[in-house]
Design goal:
With 511 residues, this protein is α+β, with helices and mostly antiparallel strands. It contains 11 helices and 21 strands. The strands form 7 sheets. Strands 1-18-19-20-21 form a 5-stranded mixed sheet. Strands 10-11-12-13 form a 4-stranded mixed sheet. Strands 3-2-4 form a 3-stranded antiparallel sheet.
């Protein structure tokens, strides 16, 4: 009996060992077998042939005046997909033409409000300037101001807009009887009582019987400043404090602020106090055709110092003209004199300006205003975000963004250690098409582009790929980027990146 039990036990042990050995063999065989190959991700889109509209349908809020006139009534609308400039223009047009009903009254009363000029909407960064037709001047000062508040609140319902300037026929409008109180830049006031806002503005007026020179003013202003190396002008908003409200005091304060704002620009040389470069106080006069002229005289040495400031005189003149005409009520022209010689011609990298009679006007320099985009170059093996000035209407244009990457770092950026991320032989023609599908940007590149990536090398492929992804996603408000090459997706090119499918914005590659 014991022998039988022992035999059965041995048999069971043998079977158990055989099972274990068989299982281990299978595991080893499975380990040796090749891993199942992942299928190539299929994207539901076709490669774009040419460029399409980039953007998404957007919600915005109109702020219309209630029938009582005490508050604003919000009404949501949908805007078709478009780049920011067209979105803002469409939204402004809807605001100006909104009819009255039992709840709201039209902002312009019986006469509709319209745009003025060929470029009535101007956007740079988060600052928008709207130019209205002369019908707006028929409104009372209080109605005009409250309409401007409604427009600013409406435009600021778009995430990209933070400040709004409103001009009428290229001029700022004064809000007091003498026409010298500037409205300044406006921001959103969605829940404010309109009459209370107007009372706060009225409180800034020079009291009856007192001198404007003795009435301090604190307000928000848009300052235009010259970019370095003749690249144009940029703008920024600041709260400014003026000791008084005379045109000379306003002009002097603005000139000082232009120098201050340049100090904060990365890679820019500071400007000195421009007001100190003037031997005479600013002079105000009336033009025969209407509007005011501000004459500014500079010392001769300003021309010698410009090179040290990395600034050319045309860009400085453009910044001064845009700042003064945007902020100072009724000012339609600026005259700049150096050693009492009026400036009648400006020759800069952005073009030639002829000023008849030495009169510089705002419209001469609108094309010099730049927008800012963030592009990614490399430094020490990491991506580095850089702010780059471009045409303000191309800040969301993906083709223009890729062109900036192809151009590579500027001389000043190279001196700071930045290196190009795209091969130098690439050209804009190598981008065959760009379009958007929802939150995904589709980019169709040439075979030459693919060959250049391969030649660029495996060690630089990730930086190349994500410099494009991050630059496009950051500026075009897209979540994903999908690449095609000659209409087809590729899995590998240089060996470091799997190109099929789509990519998400990845700031982790930066410093």
């Amino acid at each position: 009996m014991k022998n039988r039990i022992k035999k059965v036990g041995c048999l069971l042990m043998a079977l158990l060992m055989l099972a274990l050995l068989t299982g281990c063999g299978r595991e080893r065989e499975e380990e040796r077998a090749p891993a199942p190959r992942l299928s190539k991700p299929e994207v539901p889109w076709t490669a774009p042939d040419g460029d399409g509209t980039v953007g998404q349908a957007r919600r915005a809020t109109l702020y219309l005046r209630s029938v009582s006139g005490l508050q604003m009534v919000p009404r949501e609308i949908m805007l078709e997909a478009a780049e920011l400039h067209n979105l803002v223009r469409t939204l402004t047009a809807v605001f100006l033409s909104a009819p009255g009903d039992g709840e709201v009254a039209p902002w312009g009363g019986e006469r509709p409000l319209t745009f003025y000029g060929e470029t009535p909407v101007e956007i740079s960064g988060s600052i928008c300037t709207v130019n209205l037709g002369t019908a707006a001047l028929e409104l009372s000062s209080s109605d005009f101001y409250m309409m401007c508040v409604g427009l600013a609140t409406t435009l600021c319902s778009l995430d990209e807009i933070s400040f709004v300037n409103v001009l009428v026929a290229d001029q700022s409008v004064g809000l007091d009887v003498s026409g010298i109180l500037p409205m300044g830049s406006l921001t959103a006031h969605p829940d404010e009582n309109l009459p209370v806002l107007w009372e706060q503005m009225e409180a800034k007026r020079t009291p009856l019987g007192e001198e404007p020179a003795r009435t301090p003013l604190s307000t928000m202003a848009t300052l235009y400043y010259p970019l370095t190396d003749g690249r144009g002008i940029g703008c920024e908003n600041r709260i400014l404090n003026f000791p008084g409200q005379t045109p000379g005091q306003l002009a002097g304060g603005l000139l000082q602020a232009i120098g201050d704002v340049r100090k904060n620009q990365v890679g820019s040389a500071a400007l000195p106090d421009l007001a100190e470069m003037m031997p005479y106080a600013p002079l105000t006069s009336e033009l025969e055709e209407g509007g005011k002229l501000i004459t500014l005289s500079f010392r001769r040495e300003i021309s010698e110092l410009l090179e040290a400031w990395q600034t050319d005189f045309p860009c400085l003149a453009a910044a001064i003209t845009m700042t003064l005409t945007t902020f100072m009520p009724g000012v339609s022209a600026v005259s700049l004199r150096v050693e009492d010689v009026p400036t009648t011609e400006l020759n800069g990298d952005l073009g030639r300006i002829t000023a008849l009679g030495g009169l510089l006007r705002r419209g001469m320099f609108q094309s010099w205003l730049r927008g800012g985009v963030t592009v990614y170059f490399s430094r020490d093996g990491q991506l580095k975000a850089c702010l780059r000035p471009v045409d303000r209407q191309k800040t969301e244009n993906p083709r223009a963004l890729l062109s900036e990457l192809m151009a590579g770092p500027t001389r000043r950026e190279k001196n700071g250690g930045l290196e190009p991320v795209l091969p130098p032989e690439l050209r804009e023609d190598d981008v065959l098409g760009i379009a958007a599908e929802g939150d995904t940007l589709l980019v169709n590149l040439s075979e030459s582009f693919r060959s250049a990536i391969q030649a660029w090398g495996k060690e630089r492929e990730a930086l190349l790929c994500y410099s494009m992804i991050n630059t496009l996603a950051m500026n075009c408000r897209m979540s994903r980027v999908c690449f095609f090459f000659e209409g087809e997706q590729r899995e590998t090119i240089a060996g470091e990146i799997y190109w099929a499918g789509d990519f998400l914005f990845n700031p982790g590659l930066g410093d």
